[in-house]
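INFO batch 0412 | record 1 of 1 | parsing
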Amino acid sequence: GAVVSPAKVQTVTFNRTATTDQVTDVTTYTDWTGTDTTFAAVTSPDLSADGYTTASDVITLAQTVTAGEPDTTLTVYYGHATTTTTESKTITRTIKYVDAATGTEISDPNVQTVTFTRNATLDNVTKATEYTDWTSDHAGFDTTTSPEIAGYTTNTPTTPAQAVTIDMPNSTVI
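INFO prediction complete | emitting tokens
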């Protein structure tokens, strides 16, 4: 993965004395010593403002080391925070009941709707958005029987059911 924050480097220094006998040419060493042989505890930076989740290790504990230990690298992992929102789109079919001679509406319209929803998940680091498929709890518009209105007859006693897809426009049936 990518480096998301500068590394925190700590150093512990050990010393020893080497003495060489001028006659025998044998070198002897004292034990390694250090004035501070502990790596301090480190708190991982909060990168939530940059879109990351909490670090895998929020606090790295203090650690005492000895001269014979190898260098140590500790990697702290951050995930990408996401924000999920729900999007919706409603498709509407309006059935109007109109006097054929005057064009005047003679009954309240029958308004049918089908609402589709999907989730949009934004990666707060990359700003890429992934979408789920559109879904609806209703597959389409229902068959509708025209109302009986005194003094009128209809040439459309029923309006048939109609499957609805997300890309359909709203419609009006007269």
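INFO post-check: The mean pLDDT is 94.
INFO record closed
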